[in-house]
Amino acid sequence: MQSLAGSLPAGVAPTLGPDATGVGWGFQYALVDKSGKRDLAELRSFQDWHLRYWLQSVEGVAEVATFGGFQKQYQIEIDPEKLAAYNVSLDRIIAAVRSANNDVGGRELERFGTSYLVRGHGYITSLDDLRLVVVGADAKGNPVLLRDVAANIQLGPEMRRGAGDLNGEGEAVGGIVVVRFGQNVLQVIERVKARLAEVQSSLPPGVEIVTTYDRADLINRSISTLTRTIVEESIIVALVVIVFLLDFGGAARAIITLPIAVALAFIPMYLMGLTANIMSLAGIAISIGVLTDEAVAMVENVHKKLEHAPAGLTRRQRQEIIIGACKQLGKPLFFALLVITVSFLPVFTLEAQEGRLFKPLAYTKTFTMAWAAFLSITLGPALIVLMTGAKVIPEHKHPISRFVHRLYYPWVSALMRRRRLSIAIAVVAVVSSVPIYQKLGSEFMPPLNEGTILYMPTTLPTVSITEATRLMQIQDRLIKQFPEVATVHGKAGRAETATDPAPLEMFETVVQLKLEREWRTVPQTRWYSSWAPEWGKRALRHIWPEVRPLSWDELVQEMDNALQLPGLVNAWTMPIKARIDMLSTGVRTPIGIKIYGANLDTISKLGERLETTLRAIPGTRSVFSERTTGGLYLDIVPRRAEIARYGLNVEDVLMMVETAIGGMAIDRTIEGRERYSINLRYGRERRDDVEKLQRMLVPLAAMRDTEGEGASTMGGANVATARLAQVPLGQLVEFKTTAGPPMIKNENGALTGWVYVDMTGRDLGGYVAEAKQAVREQIEQAGHLPAGYRFEWTGQYEHMLRVQDRLQLVVPLTLVLIFVLLYLNFKSIPETCIILLSIPFAMTGSIWFLWMMGYNLSIAVWVGIIALAGLAAQTGTVMVIYLDEAFHAYQRAGRMKTQHDLFEAITYGAVQRVRPKLMAVATTLLALLPALWASGAGAEAIQRIAAPMIGGLVTSTILTLEIVPAIYSLWRGRQVEWVKGPQPPKKSWDELSETFIALEKEQHEAELARLS
Q: SS3 for 264-309, per residue?
């Protein structure tokens, strides 16, 4: 900034803005005087010089921005005829006012042994002080006072480029609390509300503070939604584990580690400064079911070993069996959890807005899974040893095991006879998802309902402050008529903060809504509505009511229809979303188009052509092109020859333009804490027409310079001995009315114009694809795009493309890393590949379920798919572990000689351990259901994350139970001979079980003999 100081205009001093951004607008309020005793200027003064500082001193508040109302100003309206009569120039008035507004210090004065500080009070504090300012003297030496040459000396409003309104009832003074960057918004807002409660008694009588936006409400509702979901998930997981195991001791081992892992995850969260928000709690929510998977598998394996162990075991022998069972699954389960953790690496690589949104989720999920992996090899085995009961229920007596065994055994037996047909069916299922995937729409983020609407219409840049205020009050009044609306706080133009660059033609209206249970209801046709008799309908309405609450989209559409005002182009969004969009791309709508070129006129014409083209695209709610031209200017151009003939400089003439026409703030009053400017200009009636401006008189420089030579002084003012010569302004300048750019934007070294596109009822990617095609055909290929000009699509679409490009690079690398981890565990490339086949099986269900739910592909959906990849790999890992166990058991017994022996081993390995596999899937799947049916703030994001995981787990489980044994048998079949001849008779499940139970008992006896 120091390097710029020399190139800036006089009086311009650059300063650093607050340590905050527009996203930090966390709290908004309006000052209302119910008594009607205070005008907008008094309320604005109270806000600027008292309330603002009270709130700004709160920890975590960067600044408090003011908008609306009138800033008090001392206004001196000069009468040029009196100036001529008293022979006084504007320069002299400016100097006199400045000389009359000052304080001085006189050091110290000692009196009677006491020291007094000497102060000279000379600040102007009232209109009477101004009126008594001496500006000169007449020919007789009598003083000429400011009141003698002024048409009026009064208090009035300072010129403004913004206004505020509350509920359409009239202008209001508003304040915006901007939270410091990096602060906890919830805590800061709570401190702000506490400070407001403290200063309530200090407010002027009759003045109230009306809250019009409170982000703390959104945060609390979001946290409540996610907390409720986590509690529901934990209860479901606990019930599933108890029902599947029927062993409260073993179930307690799984249930106890769940809250411990979650609680321990908050430690690194605290150390990293992560807060409990929508995304961080969502990371825990999608991890709840997975946290118990390893515990369930380990407890079930212990049950199986104890079930087949010989009778009469000592406590020591029993513990050895339990420890051996834990060791058997400890390493693969640890690697499975590690794979789930590693699968989330793509989320850590996200950048910009998407990185800030989803990295907290990735961190909390990783922390939770890391602690679960640690507990699985430390606390988990110890708890199993302590909590496993003396007796376990054999699987042939367990009702769930008996059911799934008898259901799954015929399926696997048939599968072994028709392996290639089963694989073909699975391939067809995977391929069927390809056309469905192509039908899915795409978007950057699902619409996160903040519970507050931000209405952002735009009008032409030539709008005046009076017309902007009138339009704002009309629209606010219309919005307030909706019964769902609590408050409407409108802002036209900018607030007094560097975080708000809004021009006057941009409106920002915060619409605070009532609770959804207070919204209107609309009729809804049910399955019985057309045929059921009335008495039947009355009974059925208790279960399926024929009314439903008005939806968010329907409410916005109704408002949009009611606000089709001439000259306004509507845009509907939400406060946080709009601030993030404007901060990252500058575009407040979901889609924006930047036009780059060298000429503003051409850019403006291209923008208007884009408006026409895009309005015809289905789903377009509004499209507005910024007017890069069309601003109206009254140019005052000096006639240098005439100016020189009268001995003047251009500065002397333009000084007249700046002061008499524009009004110059010549000084500032000091009234305690308050500061107000003193403005000097001609009266409105003398500057509201070009002809009147031409008659303004400019004093000649030659006469001003000689005033002091033959002049005497009186009270510090010169007594002129000669008449002050003046010349009309019209002789010195030329007046021209021209059109020009109201605002110039430059980006990447080129002039730009922006087009804002608001859409509804369609996915973002599909809309942009159709819009691009229309622009290509109707503008680019039609020859309407000149050379050197180009379009750049931005907004949320830009974020979406960036995420897609990043994931296309990182996801394959993550799969390679998962492959390496699986290989380190199994030391077998074929087994690793078999496990990775679970991922496309899982993707099949994800795609179909997303299509049935009507969800678009978004960053939230991709996060769910990334999480699913780790779960699918874990499911395949568990299946391969049990197949290997059965294969090696037959091999050790010397019974793995033919393909039929292989089929028996694979069948037993798949069926015997189907309970832990289904239990692991059930805990994860059922734990995700509360996330899918969640409602309230923040539910949209967690639903999109949970949906692909739920659909993928269903198909992954089905196809893993079917295809993995088939592919495994084809691979292992190369290691045994195929014996031609008749098939041996098919064994029943009981016969097959007895064979393997005998093998396991022999193995236990051998192990116990070795230990003894």
A: HHHHHHHHHCCCCCHHHHHHHHCCHHHHCHHHHHHHHHHHHHHHCC
In eight-state DSSP terms, residue 840 is H
**Rounded Cα–Cα distance for residues 790 and 603 (Å):** 10
- How are beta strands 572-573 and 697-699 bridged, if at all? unpaired
Residue type (1 letter), 843 = M
CA 738, 742, 747, 752 torsion-angle sign: negative
User: CB neighbours of 968 closer than 8 A, spacing ≥ 6?
Assistant: 834, 880, 883, 906
Is residue 204 predicted with pLDDT exceeding 70? yes
Query: And the tokens for 606?
Result: 């291209």
1011 CB-contact burial (10 Å; exposed 0-12 / middle 13-18 / buried 19+): exposed
Span 613-621, average pLDDT: 87
Within 10 A of 203 (CB to CB), how many other CB atoms are there? 16
What is the C-alpha to C-alpha distance for residues 165 and 714, in angstroms, rounded to an integer?
51
Distance CA 855, CA 633 (A): 51
Q: What residues contact 203, with CB distance under 8 A and at least 6 apart?
A: 209
The distance in angstroms from the start CA to the end CA of the chain is 83
Q: Where are the alpha helices (DSSP H) in 755-858?
A: 764-775, 796-826, 829-836, 838-853
C-alpha distances in angstroms, 40 versus 29, 204, 474? 15, 13, 19
pLDDT for 189: 92
- C-alpha closest to that of 794 among 832, 831, 747: 747
Q: Residue 928 and residue 236: Cα distance in Å, rounded?
A: 10
Helix and strand numbers (H, E) in the chain are 36, 30
Q: Helix (H, G, I), strand (E, B), or coil: what is residue 516? A: helix
pLDDT in tens, 238-256: 777 777 777 676 667 667 7
Determine if the pTM surpasses 0.70. Answer: yes
**Torsional class of 665: left (φ above 0), alpha (ψ -120 to 50), beta (otherwise):** beta
HSE, CB side, 13 Å, CA atoms: give it for residue 916: 30
What is the bridge-based pairing of β-strands 674-682 and 72-78?
A: parallel
Q: Give 429-434 contacts, CB < 8 A, sequence gap 24+.
A: 429/841, 429/844, 429/955, 429/959, 430/840, 430/841, 430/843, 430/844, 432/844, 433/843, 433/844, 433/847, 433/848
- 665 strand-pairing partners: 679
pLDDT tens digits along 799-848: 788 888 888 888 888 888 888 888 887 788 888 888 888 888 888 888 99
What separation in angstroms does the CA of 985 have from each of 407, 503, 906, 976?
Answer: 20, 86, 17, 19
For residue 117, count CB atoms less than 10 angstroms from its CB and return exposed for 0-12, middle for 13-18, buried for 19 or more. Answer: exposed
